[in-house]
Amino acid sequence: MVVLNRIYTRTGDAGQTALGNGARVPKHDLRVDAYGTVDETNATVGLARLHADGLIDQRLGLIQNDLFDLGADLCRPDMDRDAEAKFPPLRMAAAQVTRLETEIDEMNAGLAPLRSFVLPGGSALAAHLHLCRTVSRRAERLVVELASAEDVNPDAIRYLNRLSDWFFVASRIANDSGAGDVLWVPGANR
């Protein structure tokens, strides 16, 4: 259980922060940028939930919890030492990816195939879900970049890749099951 008695610690005043294993790194470190963008994704999900209800809201709540798990995973480097850790780090699991895939398939089953790209917008919920999608894609790019330099849990990358797809399909559901989608018309304003 996490207990936060003090919010500020002054330990980051010189531009350093602590990773989950206690190592100090610059606040602009790629790993910090990656899990910080996961946190930003979570904040956009919180905004989307202001417009959601029912099953979509419930599923967004699960995603918010998953995103905290993902941040915990990313803030702990040294995956090769997981077995030796006094407190084993929380790592993303394949089951979390599978859950997203199942939900995507369920939502997509009732949607008509797209004949054009969809512009972000339509309903307020759909617009917010598109924002979630784009921020999660940025998080994915950062995590993939991090994985090119350091060990990263492959399920973390897979989760982010599926997550942006989840947001896209959910945005179509939020747009009256696709009837309210705003479609791109190539060259319409020439």
From TrEMBL:
It catalyses: 2 cob(II)alamin + reduced [electron-transfer flavoprotein] + 2 ATP = 2 adenosylcob(III)alamin + 2 triphosphate + oxidized [electron-transfer flavoprotein] + 3 H(+); 2 cob(II)yrinate a,c diamide + reduced [electron-transfer flavoprotein] + 2 ATP = 2 adenosylcob(III)yrinate a,c-diamide + 2 triphosphate + oxidized [electron-transfer flavoprotein] + 3 H(+). The keyword Nucleotide-binding applies. SUPFAM superfamilies: Cobalamin adenosyltransferase-like. Keywords: ATP-binding, Cobalamin biosynthesis, Nucleotide-binding, Transferase. The keyword Phosphoprotein does not apply. Residues 7-173 form the Cobalamin adenosyltransferase-like domain. Its EC number is 2.5.1.17. Pathway: Cofactor biosynthesis; adenosylcobalamin biosynthesis; adenosylcobalamin from cob(II)yrinate a,c-diamide: step 2/7. GO terms for molecular function: corrinoid adenosyltransferase activity. It is an enzyme of class 2 (transferase). PANTHER family: CORRINOID ADENOSYLTRANSFERASE, CORRINOID ADENOSYLTRANSFERASE MMAB. Belongs to the Cob(I)alamin adenosyltransferase family. This is Corrinoid adenosyltransferase.
